[in-house]
Amino acid sequence: MTTHDEKVLDAGQLEKTSSGISDRRNNAIIDEFSPEEKKKLIRRIDKRLVLTLGFMYCVSLMDRTNTGVAVVAGMGVDLVFIGSRYSIMVLVFFLTYVFLQPPATVVLRKVGPRIFLPLIVILWGLTTIGIGFVKVWTDLIPLRLLLGVFEAGFFPGCAYLLSCWYPRYELQRRNAVFYLIGSMSSAFSGILAYGFSELAGKGAGADWMGYHFGPTEANPTAPKYFGPGLSGWRWIFILQGALTVIVGMVGWYFIVDFPELAAKKSFFGANFLNEREAAFIVARIEKDRHDAIPETFAVGKYLKHALDLKVWGFATLFMCSTTISYAIAYFLPIILNEGMGFNRAASQCLIAPPYVLAAIVMFAFAWYGDKWHMRSPFILANGVLALIGLPLMGFVDNVGARYFGVFLATTAANANIPTQDSPEYVPGITACMVAAAVIVIVTLLLDIKFSRANKRAAAGGKAIEGLEGFRYTL
Q: What's the pTM value of the predicted model, to 2 decimals?
């Protein structure tokens, strides 16, 4: 009985040498395909892999960030989100989400993406449905923790799987399409949520599952009672969760395995590639960076990478980018509603245009990044956009100028703003500006480090990552 890590490819197709797989052997395998055959095969992989992962990422973003539109739809009133309760509910998701990402990637390699990715999608979809039936705000805490457990392995798993299929200078465009589909979910999830919330009053359940009515500042003596059916915000979680489960089930059929296992027959009896095609994909990766065939997993070797400064540099960039990006996903509907004065429908729908612009700019940056073999200038441009957009969004009185700032900040990567700071949002905006500045500084420092390493290797010095001829992309 074979394990998932055992190779399906004929051992004779790949030739190991002391310096890795022979470039001559890789070139021979690649040259067996005509240019037209290569394009046709890569196009087939793009459709099957990138689009499938993109649509799964689409529901992932909706399920983890739909709390903002739900609050505008009445969740904050029904569950009494006073003080820092909403911020706590948002925060607990990241406790499990962040700490379980590294081990989840190891599990992905052992179990395989065909099983692992669709399974966790279905499980977090069921968790999202469960959020639609909570009675008090504290019921959200274990469910949000559980949501973080299931979603932890998805994004890093997708990024890792994509990197296994494409050489470096073809990968960024595929990452962009993958992320673009997810960004479209952020753009239109508000509109979709508004449609779902219009089902308020439909369905049947306990009395407390309807909209809550009672005393307000304007009418402190009003009687407390519940509306009929289910609250609109509950329908948002129930229907988006059901959609996620369906996408996970469909993904179970369409998701592909690692390239060296792509010729293996699936549970449904079909194989995605034949052995000749799988060997071609593996040879392309080996020729590019010599890591298509994974090394045997060892805890010591795995943890050793924690001592690599550039890993911490990239981690800092990712941390600062997501610090900025998650807040517009979580808080923009609330900012539009409470901070800028838009009504419920407008607040849920006006989140779409900034994300559409962000998607266009992101894909353009990715396309030219691959074409020109560069990365840092585009990261620096995003940092500058954030440093312009965030002050406009937070410190200007004119609503039009603030909304324009939303476009710039969303394009750069979004913004984390605590609700208790309403309506000025000074601490949150300032924190996001600091994060944007750190992105610029760390990117410049990494540029200096990589440039020196490239010059040293070009002069005959130490080989980068032990690979002769390898150079960092600046």
A: 0.76
